[in-house]
Amino acid sequence: QVQLVESGGGLVQAGGSLRLSCAASGFAFSRYAMGWFRQTPGKEREFVATITWSGGSISYADSVKGRFTISRDNAKNTVFLQMNSLKPEDTAVYYCAAVMIFSTTWSQYDYWGRGTQVTVSS
Asked: Residues 93-105: what's their mean pLDDT?
């Protein structure tokens, strides 16, 4: 049974930091690229960051470049999103997802977590 479980969300003041984690099980994690997406009510799911199976290639949305860092630990089947210099517009539910090919398009992803809420107060 495939599971992706996000954790680490919460309430933080603008300028603060959070580190999201996503624990994966039930599939060959080290063979999949992993991504982070976010969504706010009434808006389409938005790409945040993605990393290849080896960590050799990474891509970020322009809106988070220089502030967020994606990483992974294949030994622990976990992907991380370090979020620094948070802004109120980063408020969203954050989802991790798995895909066989490197992609920034949410519809191409195979497996999804249930999400974790991040709220940034001004």
From this structure: 96
